[in-house]
Amino acid sequence: MKRMTRTRAALAGGLAVAALGTLVAGVGVAQADEEDGRRGKAAVMPGEREIAGLFDRWNAALRSGDPERVTDLYAEDAVLLPTASPRIRTDHGEIADYFAHFLEKKPRGEKIRSEIDVLDADSAIDAGLYRFHLTDPKTGVTKPLDARYTYVYEKRDGRWLIVNHHSSVIPS
After folding, report:
1. Running along the chain, 172 residues long, what does each successive block of 10 average in pLDDT?
2. Which of 50, 67, 75, 105 could form a cystine bridge with 46, CB 3.0-4.6 A?
3. How many CB atoms are located within 10 Å of the residue 38 CB?
4. pTM
5. 148, containing H or E segment
6. What are the phi and psi torsion angles at 141 (to 5°)?
7. Residues in Cβ contact with 132 at an 8 Å cutoff, skipping those fewer than 6 apart
8. What is the CA angle 172-150-157, rounded to 5?
């Protein structure tokens, strides 16, 4: 009789451990599914080429001459530390104002060196050096301006936006 009780106790203990393990695993899967659900679908890591292409999109917006088209690439809560202004821009109005003046110089950018760091499926950093070709609106003379840059991107509602952009002239 004692032997039967020990066997039942061992069997009951084993079942309790198995049930607890199943419960813990199920909670972990549910949490992962819930996180993926908040992002929309299962997260897919972007490649460096995709992130590098975001600069090309920004540069094309510059060439359009439309400050609103450029500003639309920035998140509502973005921060811009621009190349040609000492003011920090922290909302769409301020960012659009900066680009309205900057675009008068018909900027055309080209990357010199880029370091891309994909942080996760929804955020990445692109930092490096770029050269602007700027045209003086009064003289029509175009001159290069070398600068360093950092773009911090976040994917929001399925769209890559600039959340932080720093650009400064390379010190001599």
Report:
1. 49 44 44 49 86 97 97 98 95 96 96 97 98 96 97 97 97 86
2. 50
3. 7
4. 0.75
5. strand 142-156
6. -80, 130
7. 83, 107, 108, 109, 144, 145, 147
8. 165
